Amino acid sequence: MIGLAFSGLGGADNIGYIIPSEEIELFLADVADGTYDGKPGLFDDLQTLENTALRAFLRLDPATKGMVVHHPARDDADYPLREWDVITRIGTTPINEDGMIRIGPNLRVRFAYLVQKVARDGKVPLTVVRAGQELAIDLPVVAERPQLVPDLRGDYPPYFICGPMVFSKATSPFVSSLAGGKVHVPFMYSYFGSPLMLRIGDQPAFPGEELVVVCSPFFPHKLAKGYSNPIASVVKSINGVSIKNLAHLVAVLRDSRDEFIVVDMNQRGGEGVVFKRKELLASTDEILSDNGVRAQGSPDMLAIWNAPPAP
Question: Are residues 60 and 54 in contact, defined by beta-carbon separation less than 8 angstroms?
């Protein structure tokens, strides 16, 4: 079998596609344990080695070919790739100066094609040239690039309600829904310095980092009187504590014993939202009942909310 043919992609009818049989075999091998892990990939920023000035800058031997590392996917000391490394081989297969490899007498493909074939135990063997020296490295590979604003992959978003405010983590479907087909909306959020636009392509700056957003307008309640609609505002801090992720926000609210709860937003022109803490907590059940909301939060957030306060 050459592959599996299908057609009828929405908006592109009468266009046929073939999924190669080797892709099908890789998929079946992956899901054999009941879980789809995905294909490993390289997420480093690379560029070709065709430019003569670039080659001279790197002081390369004329015979050296491969791909130049522009920005490594990670900058920690344990990551084996460095800026200006030249990747010359993937496994035992040489890479051309335009990033292509030969897999047959008449067929050339991008070298990344081999990642899924030569990866073992989450690592890909590469040969690199660094400062004139040839090195053999094992590069860690993952199926998906970590994203500060991730896709939900079919899951429900986590959330937490406290008084009239609803908090969630920023996800790509949420950000996509903001524009609603209006081209000026992303510009508006960028103008006000919202991390939803300025950091949408970033990786998390530290393990567990999330952008926590107010994901809906205020529920109708007297506590919200005078405040503007906060939807899509990114929470910067609560009572001066910088918020790391949604779980951290819930823990900060749970542990607070201050008279007031001050929610500061991470954008220009955003309002500071202030509530009396006891009134805020007392209003939550009433708001949930009035609006037919069955749960104050998703199960993971409620587990944090109902846990004992931090010592």
Answer: no
The pLDDT value given to residue 15: 62
Task: Give me the residue spans of the domains in the chain.
Answer: 1-28, 40-140, 159-305
CA torsion through residues 278, 280, 285, 286, sign: positive
DSSP-derived letter for residue 147 is -
Which conformational region is residue 236 in: left (phi greater than 0), alpha (psi within -120 to 50 degrees), or beta? alpha
Instruction: Quickly list H helices, the chain.
Output: 21-30, 52-58, 115-118, 172-179, 184-191, 195-198, 246-255, 277-290, 299-305
User: Is 99 within 8 Å of 46 (Cβ atoms)?
Assistant: yes
CB 160 within 8 A of CB 296: yes
Report in angstroms the alpha-carbon separations of 107 from 76, 96, 154. 37, 13, 37
Per the prediction, the chain carries an average pLDDT of: 90
Looking only at Cα atoms, what is the longest distance across the chain? 75
Sheet-wide strand order for 212-214: 159-162, 165-169, 212-214
3-state secondary structure of 227: coil
40-140 architecture in CATH?
Roll (2.30)
Dihedrals phi, psi of 61, to nearest 5 degrees: -65, 145
pTM above 0.90, yes or no: no
Q: Any residues with CB less than 8 A from the CB of 25 and at least 6 apart, and which?
A: none
Q: How far apart are alpha carbons 19 and 229 in whole angstroms?
A: 47
Could you report the per-residue pLDDT of 60-108, keeping only the tens digit for each? 999 999 999 999 998 889 999 999 999 999 999 999 999 999 988 888 9
How far is it, in rounded angstroms, from Cα 224 to Cα 275? 9
Q: Residue 86: beta bridge partners? A: 68, 129
CATH architecture under which domain 159-305 falls: Alpha-Beta Barrel (3.20)
CA 119, CA 103: separation in Å to the nearest integer?
17
3-state secondary structure of 18: strand
